[in-house]
## 1
Amino acid sequence: MQRRFTLRALTAAVALAALGAPALAADTIKVGVLHSLSGTMAISETVLKDTVLMAIDEINAKGGVLGKQLEPVVVDPASNWPLFAEKTKQLLTQDKVAVIFGCWTSVSRKSVLPVVEELNGLLFYPVQYEGEELSRNVFYTGAAPNQQAIPAVEYLMSKEGGGARRFVLLGTDYVYPRTTNKILRAFLKSKGVAEADIMEEYTPFGHADYQTIIAKVKKFASEGKKTAVISTINGDSNVPFYKELGNAGLKAKDVPVVAFSVGEEDLRGVDTKPLVGHLAAWNYFMSVKNPTNTEFTKKWAAYAKSKNIAGHKDKPLTNDPMEATYIGVHMWAQAVEKAKSTDTDKVIAAMAGQTFKGPSGFTATMDMKNHHLHKPVFIGEVKADGQFNVVWKTPGPVKAKPWSPYIEGNDKKKDEPDGKSKL
């Protein structure tokens, strides 16, 4: 009799499944981690994978989300831009993740974008970028140009920043540097900087020989007005770039370099003594003093030691994209709790206005409309130990402007994602 009941129940269950009845809820909520763990971008991205895992461990230790543990699914797109799209499709269709935390370069994000939009997935992108994009399926926890690039150049032009009047726009050859430099060119011209006083150079990913370019920079800087270099070099090319900068004796007092993609982690393998005084613009530095950051850096040090993370177990470092990643994971978890669901549309709605006290010392707020964080801006000088001394900061968080006012036609674009991304 028991056997007949079991068979009957089984038959009914199969019939319900065939009619599209919902399956039993999984015991865990799967979370995708999409960062390059090999190739030219591994120097920057590997630590972001570890930051996601640390945040997941924290959340799980407090009971998880909706009473379930988070289960990370880590993949390696290997600094291969088309592979980012393939791995995203795998995470969403095979692994059934509720959200993806990942990407560094804009070319990797743009590879992922049509996939998350088509499959209605969710991507949290943690790195500064060029703007000129809004997607309902992406939350941008890094800086838009008005939260990093524009303030940095304004600082260089100011009296306290050295009063630069000639500029070298030096970047890796892909969308983020080229679009950022397009914005900066228009901004500089609006400030009266002549075309002849702007030099623009690009190198491929993985470029290692900067002798010729540094020689050109020195010559350009010798032709008159105070010159500054704005660097959007990305990935492991930063190591030979800064080494050559030191070899050439280009000191900050003569030709300051401000970088948008170099933080504490990227300077780990570089002799920073010749680089003292050169600059970076971010929304967080490890050296900022506040109780939230003290707790964050201690947590990271303990986690890195417990997980035997290469480099960090002996010399734990934190940086801006790590902070943006950490904020993103916690905000997503808060939004899921608020929505009482991992459903993409419900989580997107619940993300509006989410807040989280970040290690920067400021409360990060997700804009009610444009999927970007309101963030403070810091400019720091490289110190001999590879840390940064903050020399300038905004009085509070700055609202992101994804559409730069220095690009023609942007005044007509809506500051709110609507359906497919507007590129």
## 2
Amino acid sequence: MEPDITYKKKSQALSIWRRFRRNRLAMFGLVVFLIIVLCAVFADVLADYEELAITQNEDERMLPPSGEHIFGTDNYGRDMFARIIHGARNSLTIGISSTLIALFFGCILGGLAAYYSGVVDNCIMRFLDMIACIPSILLALTIVFALGASLANLLTAITIAIIPGFTRVIRSAMLPIIGQEFIEAARACGATDLRILVRYIIPNAIGPILVQGTMSVASLIMTAASLSFIGMGVQPPEPEWGSMLAEAREYIRYAPHMVIIPGMAIVLTALSLNLIGDGLRDALDPRLKN
């Protein structure tokens, strides 16, 4: 039976990929996001961090885009292209890491709440409702203010702020599955609660979880940029798109490229992730198989 199950999973994944591939906007978003990720991964190869992204050069302040500096330079004479691709590491790290950690805790809390219901469900969800009453950006700002402005504290703050939303989505995705017959059959066969959750419930609820996770990365990148913009995130001179916008706002009349380029980096990343999320939602929708 195991080879048949493996073959079925592979055929389902292939079918999802085929439906996703037919969505041109989703494929465009995937290509753009892969380019951004590759630039972040190979940032040290494309541009030296210390020499181009950190070291100041007063003789090349606020130069427009040219052959030597394709994105121009900033108010300290640092290469904008180098700061953008190295800043992508921080932005993507915050967005992706926060999402993965929130998904992990959301699956645990949402799974426990949906599976055991009753008192467990009420305790978990009412506690998370109290946290959710505070706007996520305000909660993240409060945590960063208490812990201090740094990349690690920003990551912690954003993760805590989004766990309630993830838990609620995951719980609602699991509830219809728990009452189905194959779950009762697994219980009758003596499967443990942990095995039922990990082996049967979570895989069958993976569609909404993937879509929620993909789309949340975009919003988290913008949240991190917002906090860095007001000085509560990644601290200069370390590059981050939000802090780059904050540094450039005083020079928007004289060097508009300093604002446009990091702004476009945020927009393109968020747009590509939202297009991927829309494509995944359509590809995973069983009503659209035909």
